[in-house]
Amino acid sequence: MIEPGYILTYIQLFNEVCRKKYATLFNDEPSLVFTNGLCYYYAKMLESLFPDTILYTNQNNSHVIVKNGNYFYDASGLVYDHASYHEVEPEDLMQFDINTVMKSEREEEKINYIMEEIKNQTLELLAQKLSHPKRR
């Protein structure tokens, strides 16, 4: 299990990078964008970064969150209302794949490219933050 504060700091920094460097792309608050349409991409990114992370979805497959240890997360931070979520099953992925197929291949590449860029910039900021903790 990863320390919850570490994951929350990553989420906060990710949203800051989105706000500062990709403001024209995100007309809304980044956490709203990634909880209303791009949640699957966000969850897959968190899964790739943090070991032992498991994808969860709600009953109608309209939102994806992740679980790490005993905590649940999405782009807004900790998810407290997760009782109606279940671990993603192969048949759930078919629904996400259909949504992915409906996007053009070029759009899909663009989303993946931008997510990778934001992820890398966020990891750099996180490394800086961890190497230079606030002094008292």
Describe the structure.
The protein contains five helices and five strands. By secondary structure, the chain is an alpha+beta fold. The protein has one domain. The two termini are 29 Å apart.
Q: What labels describe this entry?
A:
single chain; 136 residues; alpha+beta; five-stranded antiparallel β-sheet; 5 helices; globular
Look at the helices and sheets and give the structural class: alpha+beta
What general form does the structure show?
globular
Number of strands: 5
C-alpha Rg (nearest Å): 15 Å
In DSSP terms, counting alpha (H) and pi (I) runs of 4 or more, how many helices? 5
Mean of residue pLDDT?
Answer: 82
Largest sheet: 5 strands, antiparallel
Biggest sheet strand line-up:
4-3-2-1-5
Quick take:
This protein is an alpha+beta fold and 136 residues long. Helix content is 54%, strand content 13%.
Secondary structure blueprint with pairings:
Layout: H1 4-21, H2 30-33, H3 39-49, E1 53-57, E2 64-68, E3 71-74, E4 77-78, E5 86-87, H4 90-102, H5 105-131
Antiparallel strand pairs: 1-2, 1-5, 2-3, 3-4
Helix pairs in contact: 1-5
